[in-house]
Protein 1
Amino acid sequence: MSFKAIKYKGEDYRDDRLFVLNLTLGKQGDIPKWILRTYANTFSLRPVSDHCFDSKEEAVRYLKSVEYQVPLISNNGNPLNIPAEVENKWEYFNEWLKQKNLFSAISEMQHCPYHIDERGYNFMKNYAHSEIVTDGFE
């Protein structure tokens, strides 16, 4: 199966977003955590950073504060233009995702390389069940 890439600054991207997030269970050392992992949205889904949380609620709160800020190829590497009067920027962004047939990390669907699932995502839990990639450089 062939996939249509979006070329941007010498890289092949899977869709308009430069980064995507997965929310899943994982471990920090031996301690169970909710992990919000950021990936470069290229075909290989290169891990960029992890943020660990003690609870799903904490992770979702953080997710909603950052996901709408993802840079977009269609906006020259800037986030979605959200009108200033919009109070819930994450909901606005989530509606934009739905219009583009994309999904938020809050769905717990997991972005994955196409060789794992030809759709580029699956519902496998603990996909990122691993040690921390980084302490979070962005």
Note: The longest helix spans residues 56-66.
Protein 2
Amino acid sequence: MNTIIKIALIFLAITGASTLLYNYTDVTFGTIDYFTKHGWIFLISIALFPRLTLLVSGLIFNTVEFGGLFWWVGFFFAPRILVAILATVAYWQTNQVLVILSWLIALGGESSEKIIIKRRMKGAPHKFADYSGGETIDAEFKVKE
């Protein structure tokens, strides 16, 4: 399946899930405008360096939601997706364009990282890639008396 189609399907699924959560459950999305809490520097830094920005802004400045098991799992394995989820929950009502951009950056960034790692590992030397070993050596061992 084409990458663009995958991104579109994932985005539609997430948008549908957030719409269902908002309309049929007690989940409340934030009503604060992004630019009243953060600025352009934070926006650029969270797009380029999500782990560092989340850690510094969560621990030191307390400007983003911080902690919990799923937060830490997202922090270590998919920080851009964690940023997109936090943006959806906090700013969906006021800044839909920024939330959409965060999802596009998240899905594009995570997939491009994995593609780059696969390309780099393809040319890397593999220590045990060939188990045939070519020639075999027969040896006999005798106990010395």
Note: The helical segments are 3-24, 34-37, 40-48, 50-61, 69-77, 79-91, 96-122.
